[in-house]
Amino acid sequence: MASEKKQSVLNGAMMLMFAVVLVKLIGALFKIPLTDMLGATGRGYFNSAYEVYTPIFAISMAGLPVAVSRMVAENVALNKYRDARMVFRVSQRIFILVGIVGTLVLLLAAYPYTVFVAGSKSLPAVLCVAPSIFFCCYMSAYRGYYEGLRNMTPTAISQVIEALGKLLIGLALAKIVISVGVNQYEAGMLASGNVSSVVFGNTVTSDTEANSVIIPWAAAGAVMGVTVGSIASTVFLIIRHKLKGDGFTRVQLVNSPKAAPSDSIAKEMIKIAIPMVISALVLNITNLIDTVTIQSRLISALNSDFNTVMQMHSEAFNEAVRLSRLNINDIKEVKNYLWGVYGTALDFKNLVPTITIQLGVSALPALAAAWAVKEKSSIKSTVETVIRISMLVALPAGIGMAALSKPILEIIYARGLSSDAIPSVVPILAAYGLATPVMAISTPTTNMLQAIGRTDIPVKSVVVGAIVKIICNFVLVGNPKINIYGAVVGTVLFYVVIVVCNLTSLIKISQVKVNWKSVFVKPAICAALCGITAFAANGLLTTLFPSDPSQSIINMGTISAVISIGLAVIVYAVSLLLIKGIAREDVIVLPKGEKIAKTLEKYGLLG
Asked: Which residue in 393, 351, 350, 407 sits closest to 534, CA to CA?
């Protein structure tokens, strides 16, 4: 089609997956030192800015990038290259408007939100993150365009640039603000004979008062890194587009029919996006209701039968009381403790789905193009590839997480303030591990439905799933014998409903006959062997070489877990090859994949 080669679904997904893993690592490098600099209070200001930014950002971004990607892919498949370019130009104008509106909404919401909800000291951080909505929206026109052209490289690179900007600029600004503030305080105290000092225009008389002035602005500096990262990413995409363009040749453009009017393209784009905006609204409202109902029903459970709840979590409660982290006589404090237990497990819930989401992003333009020209073989290949690779990744990762839930938590939290909660978090993490394959396929199935023009189905499935989730919260969380574990059931059922609705609809509409033996049964068998290996190896090693995980990160418990994971990976890989659970196209995307594939084919190890 163009001078720039199209990427296959797996090539594009691998590119995005690598970028996401790198972004996650950069995020960890950002948050760990940031917490050390700001402390818990400063992280609270930082998090408060994100809590109001995230829903407004999600609604502003909902639908339009997907609409651009799909429309571009369809037009290119039909050789309508002028239309594809017109889609890009129209999307730029729409994204500028949406970005301005989103930024203004956040700026207008900043004062009432910080005064009535988060606290007025969070205001500088909220104001600093607001402009990033505009730049994120604008850059999404470029990302959606290149994704529609099945070129995921610009998106991947821009994501890494965005994360690096946050890391380098955010930490630097936070450090500078703290240094300047401390210098002002020390100079003022020296000049006044330790009576008072002026820090950022505020008179303070102690270290505590000085910190209360400095930390909110340091948090704002850290958040400014988010905005600077989005600006840097946008600049990269603009420059790249100026230098390399989209790869369309003059011949392709000359032979392409005249582009449709911009207003009709805009209407089509908005028509595609509206159901996804509704879905984003439903999800955000559901999350809000989820938070309220879980906590209110926990109070009901505790008031109804406190002793039953106490017995269920006795190990965690007793340790928390011993360490003076919990007043067992205060029901609200116990409720907050259980809510924190749930939140600790949520940190792990989206680890694997964050990776498999990239399969959906990569598959959307490929499937949209195949659907536009009715290439049944390509439609079947794309649908099966997304499901198979999602299962190949999610099944072993999820089962492994369930099998090693306790050692994983001990490695991360045994020396911190959450160590007492581990006994109560383990069942939640194990449940989410077993549910990981379902959660991992939810977004990719949504993307594939969007690719074939059925954006309405994911909205309906989300609404039904949300209703099920809220009912579960009310009935199960309020039951003293289930309490916080009821929230886990509700979340899992939420994803089950979405996947069942999406997948059955996708198969019915696309008329694809999925080879379930290849995409699910074989990976499931190998993942089960993987989980058994991990559980048995860790149990044996910890019995032979017991250790105290609270002493240091590097101990026999950590070593046992790492060895168990290594053995489980080997068992999974070997068993997959023996039962021919890997296809040739899965291998060729790897470094030296062609050579590896030929070797495996020689010994009859590919399916």
From this structure: 407
Angle between helices 456-472 and 262-304 (to 10 degrees): 10
List the structure tokens of 373: 């020209």
Provide DSSP, 393-404.
HHHHHHHHHHHT
**What was the pLDDT predicted at 14?**
82
Question: CA-to-CA distance for 461 and 432, rounded, in angstroms?
Answer: 20
Tokens of 122: 């969070």
Residue with tokens 């996804």: 276
Domain ranges of the chain: 273-514, 515-607
204 SS3 class: strand
Output the 3-class SS for 225-262.
HHHHHHHHHHHHHHHHHHHHCCCCCHHHHHHCCCCCCH
Distance CA 507, CA 522 (A): 20
- Give the model confidence (pLDDT) of 299-336 as tens digits: 999 999 999 989 998 888 888 888 777 778 888 888 88
Backbone angle region of 199, left / alpha / beta, with phi > 0 → left and psi within -120 to 50 → alpha? beta
Q: Tell me if residue 79 falls in helix, strand or coil.
A: coil
3-state helix vs strand vs coil in the chain, percent to 5:
85, 0, 15
Which residue matches tokens 């997907």? Answer: 66
How far, in Å, CA of 338 to CA of 291, rounded? 13
How far is the C-alpha of 478 from the C-alpha of 298, rounded, in Å? 6
Give the Cα separation of 516 and 519 in Å (integer). Answer: 5
- In this predicted structure, which of 105-119, 163-177, 565-579 has the lowest mean pLDDT? 105-119
Q: Which two tokens stand for residue 317?
A: 């409660």
How long is the chain?
A: 607
Question: pLDDT for 570-605, tens place per residue?
Answer: 999 899 888 887 877 777 766 666 777 787 777 777
Contact 490, 362 (CB under 8 A): no
* Of residues 441, 337, 450, 449, the one with CA closest to residue 392: 441
User: Tokens 């582009």 appear where?
Assistant: 259
